[in-house]
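thought: user wants a sequence for this fold. calling inverse folding tool.
action: design(structure=
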């Protein structure tokens, strides 16, 4: 009996030691990857793909905020310094990230410059989340990075990526449909935010020089403003794409002029609206654009 008791006692001690070892040295199910994204577009996708295994902080996350007026704070710098993965747009859209990442004593992090991933350089249109191929490629790259940090949950990340990729196909299908219906239709915009998407649909974009100046905070020339107004007055364009986040007297004047001339206005944002996924956001804007083009075509037919 004494031998049996000693055996049971040693068995209990063995199990206790095993549990302690497992707790201390094996990967933990609740371990999280800390992510800081400069823009909520990338942050929300990171959360969608990483689920309970990621902790995401998005720096620019207010759709009513002018991103060009943003300045960093000590708390933001601290968050970046403690991140496992840092994501930013690049192409000088968020130049303040360079100074945050240049701190000498900052721990090594995985840094994803989305513009570099897409081979978009400084001077190109930086609004690359409207380039249809950007987000699928970014999502795939991000999941590969997750797996490097957390191989234990590889199957979960791959499942999330597969679901996201399948859901994203509706964007490609909608672009193809709009291309069939409205290819070569002329439009104009206050800034080049939506241009990648518009070009993928095959729309003709007027006033690009005006848009670039507005994006770079350079006053448009008198001739550029007059050409823009003439396109609206003479109905040379069918839709005005309007940046809802960067508003000034000139853009308000052009919007009012478009409305007066019964040219549909489609608002777009630089930051993702709250309580939406990226796919829902893009589909809403593509739907708005399709409706605007369809309504304008009806008006033309009715007035013919």
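)
observation: tool returned 304 residues.
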């Amino acid at each position: 009996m004494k031998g049996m008791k000693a055996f049971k006692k040693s068995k209990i001690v063995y199990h206790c030691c095993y549990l302690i070892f497992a707790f201390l040295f094996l990967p933990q199910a609740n371990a999280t990857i800390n992510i800081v994204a400069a823009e909520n577009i990338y942050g929300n996708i990171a959360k969608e793909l990483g689920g309970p295994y990621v902790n995401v902080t998005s720096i620019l996350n207010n759709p009513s905020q002018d991103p060009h007026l943003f300045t960093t704070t000590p708390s933001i710098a601290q968050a970046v310094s403690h991140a496992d993965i840092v994501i930013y747009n690049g192409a000088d859209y968020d130049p303040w990230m360079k100074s945050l990442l240049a701190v000498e004593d900052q721990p090594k992090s995985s840094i994803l410059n989305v513009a570099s991933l897409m081979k978009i350089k400084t001077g190109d249109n930086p609004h690359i989340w409207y380039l249809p191929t950007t987000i699928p490629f970014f999502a795939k790259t991000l999941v590969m990075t997750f797996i490097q940090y957390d191989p234990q949950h590889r199957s979960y990340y791959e499942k999330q990526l597969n679901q996201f990729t399948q859901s994203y196909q509706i964007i490609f299908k909608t672009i193809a449909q709009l291309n069939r219906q409205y290819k070569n239709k002329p439009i104009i915009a206050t800034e080049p935010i939506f241009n990648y998407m518009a070009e993928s649909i095959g729309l003709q974009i007027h006033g690009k020089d005006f848009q670039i100046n507005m994006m770079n905070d350079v006053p448009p020339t008198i001739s550029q403003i007059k050409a823009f107004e003439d396109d609206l007055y003479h109905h040379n364009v069918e839709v005005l794409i309007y940046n809802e986040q960067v508003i000034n007297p000139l853009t308000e004047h052009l919007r009012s002029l478009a409305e007066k001339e019964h040219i549909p206005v489609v608002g777009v944002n630089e930051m993702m609206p709250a309580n939406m996924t990226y796919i829902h956001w893009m589909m809403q804007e593509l739907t708005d654009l399709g409706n605007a083009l369809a309504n304008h075509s009806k008006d033309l037919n009715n007035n013919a």
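thought: summarizing for user.
answer: Here is the designed sequence. Residues 174-298 form a domain with the Rossmann fold fold (CATH 3.40.50.1980).
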